[in-house]
Amino acid sequence: MADCSETLKELNRFLDDELEQESLAELTAHLTGCVDCQQAFEFHAELKQLVRRASHEDSVPPALLKRIEECFGDDIAGDGDFAN
Ligand SMILES: [Zn+2]
User: Fold this and answer.
1) What is the distance between the alpha carbons of residues 69 and 57, in angstroms, rounded to a whole number?
2) Residues at Cβ < 5 Å from ligand 1 ion
3) Is 69 in a helix, a strand, or coil?
């Protein structure tokens, strides 16, 4: 069983659609029994959706986007699909 920090790393890869089926099963298994990771998962998923949507529309002020990026830079902006 993976630990929490391991799971959170996988989580980011999952949100980027980079996770293999096998790792996905482990991730799901851990989430099922770990409320902390469940909450982190939901938070990250929502945040990522917000940023994705915002980067396609212009409805979110650039200043806010920048703050989100600064707070969570490595997690959500490090893969390059947020740059434009
Ligand atoms: Zn956990």
Assistant:
1) 16
2) 4, 34, 37
3) helix
Centre of ligand 1 to C-alpha 7, Å, is 6
Contacts of 79 (CB under 8 A, 6+ apart): 16
Give me ligand 1 centre to Cα 30, in Å. 6
SS3 call for 54: helix
Give me the average pLDDT of each 10-residue run along the chain (84 residues): 83 85 90 92 85 74 77 56 47
Q: pTM of the entire structure?
A: 0.57
| CA 70–ligand 1 middle distance (angstroms) | 24
